Amino acid sequence: MKLDKFIFFIIIYIITGVYGSLNSYSQNSSNTIIKGTVIDAKTREPLPFVSVALENTSTGTVTDNKGNYTIVTIATSYKVRFSFVGYDTESRIIYPGKTQTINIELNPTAVELGEVVVKPAKRTYRNKDNPAVDLIGKVIDNKGINRMEGLDYYKYSKYEKIVLSLSNLPEDFKQPKSFNKFQFVLDNVDTTRQDGKKNIPVYIKESQADFFYRRDPKADKEIIRAEKTIKFDEYIDNKGLSANIKYLYQDIDIYDNEIFFLSNKFLSPVSATAPILYRYYIIDTSMVENTRCIKMFFEPRNPADFLFHGFLFITADSSYAIKKIDMSFNKGINIDWVNDVRIIQDFDKIENKGWVLTKDDTSVDFGISQNILGMYGQKEVYYNNYSINEEIADTVFKGPDKITKLNEATNLSSYWESARLAPLSSSEKALYTIVDSVKKIPSFRRQMDIVMLLTSQFLPLGKFEIGPVGTFYSFNQIEGSRVRFGGRTTYEFNNRIYFDGYLAYAFKDDLFKYNLGVTYSLSGKSIYKFPVRSIRLGYQYDTETPGQVLQYSTQDNILLSFKRGVDDKMFYNGILKLEYLYEFENHFSYTLGYNFKKQTPAGNLFFTTDETQPWSNEVPYINLSEVNVKLRYAPKEQFYQGKIYRTPIPSKHPVMQLQGAFGSKYLNSDYNYQKIKFGISRRFYFSIVGYTDVAAEAGKVYGTVPYPLLFIHNANQTYSYQKYSYNMMNFLEFVSDQYFSLNIDHSFNGFFFNKVPLLKKLKFREVATLKVLYGSVSDKNNPNLNPDLFIFPTAEDGTPVTFAMDKKPYIEGSIGVSNILRIFRIDLIKRFSYLDNPNVSSLGFRVQFRLDI
User: Fold this and answer.
1) Is the dihedral of CA 699, 703, 704, 709 positive or negative?
2) How far apart are CA 201 and CA 7, in angstroms?
3) How far, CA to CA in Å, does 272 sit from each of 133, 243, 310?
4) I need a surface site. Which of 169, 295, 558, 665 has the fewest CB within 10 A?
5) Counting runs of H as helices and runs of E as strands, what totals does the chain give?
6) DSSP structural state of residue 11
7) H-type helices in 517-646, by residue range?
8) Chain-centroid distance, C-alpha 527
9) Per residue in 634-653, pLDDT tens?
10) Can you list the pairs that 610-614 forms with residues at least 24 positions away whose Cβ atoms lie under 8 Å?
């Protein structure tokens, strides 16, 4: 769960006044609650996987490994039916609105399904001579024929609706008096979305689109024709929120070998290797929309693995196509903030040309636990107007994969009344009006200002925002205590011109630091909205810790003021920067820039060529003037988009970046040089054993330059874990004029911990990392061999503290635990090389705050 989604959830909590009560949910007296146990009438053994369904409703469940079942529903029915292949079907009368226990004994029989004869299941499961496994094998063999991607061309229209609702409202819920103005929100209760639970819809988005597909060469295009949603523009980026929700609710293709869902990869029950990890049971036969199907139950062999369980409805003919799926995943799976999931998909055959998806219904129950106030999200997609194997013009597929073409008619209620393929409920209709009303309440706006201050570290003041508050005070060995005040303008000031800046003062060096920047949008929209086209001019005078590269934070953040070891070396930089950024819809971008930097050493840092008396021949500062270019390509990249930030989502697609800097004395630089750096990163998924983030990088410096212009490798002396830094390396410990680095970070997603009862309850996850750095300094850039260069930095007693690596690499690795209290990661890090360097430790702990799903 990234920051923007977290802010959104807080907005919803404030709207409904939930601060006063997070009580457990108590069942409504009008609910029908049925529970009991199903056993074999002869052996008296419990029967797992028995289908338990309320007649004339879609409500039902299946018995667990001990034969137990529970149904809680508001649906009205007078009979419950128990069925299992190899046993006689039994029905019992039930009483709506009552709690009742119904224990059942089923008598074994033999059942014939077409050419398949199924006998009562044995207690020991095996794949050999198992009719269910044979049947799933036929489904797997026919995937290429039955899946839509096997078609040469297709196109369709779709209507999509995403609704987020506050769930698990307690019956005795009472909001504090300070929230009485929001009472009308609580009147908008929906009891139809989740059986047996009351929900309050708080967010809705509708869209209508046309989709086009071509198999060879493979291409697809989605054209969004209409969109309608509630908006919280003052606090979050609605487009970014929609993208975040869309990322969590990615389209599911049951025929894929691996299914990406909720930021994780699950092995499909119809993948080629599925019979190794799944169990399958034929339940019975049933008619699904006039199609005779074999109903099959499937479940993981190990309930802790990232696998699904549920039902497949397979056509009882030679096509072995999937007519319907109804599946979830085990609650024992280690996924944060998710209590329950249900995925239902319906398929149909069109004109004997192929099987296509007609409805997709995905729901997720978000929350800390089952009985605490949470969020229930449902995405419903309806498909129609299919055209199969009719050639589509090449021009349709040109440009980005997804484009938006809206017209004014889509804002009219009359348009949506006819465009919707499924009607809105009364609570959904009311939601558009309710949210607009809530945003006008002064108390809501005041409380949201506080929320924004705590979460984004900026205090919104209309046209201006003050912050980040985490930088208002910090300290270090050279500046001592430091205070800072700053902010930035918002789109309310001007939607094309943005100013930002700060003023800081340090008490120990008695110096003011400052920054002022202006960015102009050339795209006619916010500089934070993709794709960006902008030009920026800025000047900054401030300190820099050489070798410190931070992720998601600034150097003068108070939490990063606490450091290990010696931190007595800094630069004072005066930097003039001009930058032009152009992003393309295909996620290629280039940045052209010019920098002029006046760099002055500070603390125990000197620019001198005299090794014995570094202060006697000191150069007060150096001038660096360079032109730089950065090329970046990230195909199919998605973002966590906020109002003022954008964080790329790791994916199986690589991210490539090439940077070049060219300094010249003709530009008033003290040195001629060229620096080239190339990096590539991507995420590799391994289904049930997690995923690995891999990043490789290489760089080279051309020219004869002093150590400030070499590559000063990313080090970390704070106690905060930094993913792309060497966490056991000291600042300015290693420099290179050519290097190669490899960073491997693997998350096991609880693969081992889930098999330990206590750790499984805590939902801890295992992580492991390996970081390797090869680097060297050529003779011409080595001050020990070139006396014209500045000597490498030393400690106060003259002990060398900055080094060029010899023939061996720098290596560190770690093992750790993430998801501690849902938000912390702790790593035990081991440094394996260069242990004789001064002020180094071989072992250390680092902590990271990470709010994620």
Assistant:
1) negative
2) 17
3) 12, 32, 18
4) 665
5) 10, 46
6) H
7) none
8) 23
9) 998 877 666 666 777 778 89
10) 610/791, 611/791, 614/791, 614/794
Domain count, the chain: 2
Question: Which stretch of 24-33, 278-287, 749-758, 796-805 has the lowest confidence by average pLDDT?
Answer: 24-33
Whole-angstrom Cα distance, residue 91 to residue 425?
33
Q: What is the pLDDT of residues 603-629, one digit of tens each?
A: 999 999 877 665 666 899 999 999 999
CB 55 within 8 A of CB 82: no
Two tokens, residue 332: 């024992």
CB crowding 428-440: b at 16 or more within 10 Å, else e: bebbeebbeebbe
Confidence of residue 380 (pLDDT cuts 50, 70, 90): very high
Does 385 share its domain with 497?
A: no
Residue 112 clears pLDDT 70, i.e. is over it: no
User: Residue 277 falls within a domain, yes or no?
Assistant: yes
Domain identity same for 511 and 368: no
Q: Kindly report the average pLDDT of the chain as a whole number.
A: 84
| Amino acid present at 818 | S
- Supply the range of the domain harboring residue 150: 3-26+144-438
CA 124 from chain center: how many Å? 40
Residue whose C-alpha is closest to residue 131's, from 143, 145, 114, 144: 114
Specify whether the CB–CB gap between 487 and 458 falls below 8 A: yes
Question: What's residue 16's pLDDT?
Answer: 44
Contacts of 126 (CB under 8 A, 6+ apart): none
374 and 506 both lie in a single domain = no
Do 499 and 430 belong to one domain? no
Segment 482-491, tens digit of pLDDT: 999 999 998 8
Q: Report in angstroms the alpha-carbon separations of 89 from 79, 80, 82, 108, 779.
A: 13, 11, 6, 10, 85
Rounded distance, CA 534 to CA 637, Å? 20
187: which 2 tokens? 């009147």
- Please give the average per-residue pLDDT across 374-393, as a whole number: 89
pLDDT reading at 181 higher than 60? no
Cβ-based neighbour number of residue 384 at 10 Å: 11
Of 453, 419, 382, 408, give the one whose Cα is nearest residue 158: 382
DSSP state of 416: H
Q: Judge if 434 and 477 occupy the same domain.
A: no
Taking each helix axis from N to C end, the angle separating 3-16 and 238-248, rounded to the nearest 10 degrees, works out to 100
Rounded to whole angstroms, the Cα distance separating 277 from 592 reads 51
403 CB neighbour count, 10 Å cutoff: 12
Confidence (pTM): 0.76
Count other Cβ atoms within 10 Å, centred on residue 604. 17
Q: What is the CA radius of gyration of the chain?
A: 31
What does the alpha-carbon distance between residue 686 and residue 266 come to, in Å, rounded to a whole number?
9
- Cα–Cα dist 332/299, whole Å: 13
For 583, phi and psi rounded to 5 degrees? -110, 140
User: Is pLDDT at 709 greater than 90 in this prediction?
Assistant: yes
For residue 697, give every residue at least 6 positions away whose Cβ sits within 8 Å of its Cβ, in sequence order, or none: 677, 678, 679, 680, 739, 740, 741, 743
Q: What is the pLDDT of residue 851?
A: 59
In order of 168, 451, 618, the CA distances from 175 in angstroms are: 15, 19, 68
Q: In terms of domains, do 405 and 500 share one? A: no
Whether 398 and 543 share a structural domain: no
* Contact status, residue 522 vs residue 535, Cβ threshold 8 Å: yes
In contact, 719 and 564? CB cutoff 8 Å:
yes
464: CATH: 2.40.160.50
Is there a contact between 802 and 828 (Cβ–Cβ < 8 Å)? no
Q: Among candidates 654, 651, 699, 647, which has minimal Cα distance to 681?
A: 654
Structure tokens at 592: 């052209």
The model's confidence at residue 22, banded by pLDDT at 50, 70 and 90, is: very low
Question: How far is Cα 290 from Cα 315, in angstroms, rounded to an integer?
Answer: 11
Least confident of 189-193, 543-547, 559-563: 189-193
Q: What is the pLDDT of residues 114-132, one digit of tens each?
A: 444 444 444 578 888 899 9
pLDDT value, residue 7: 47
Q: Please tell me whether residues 615 and 743 are part of one structural domain.
A: yes
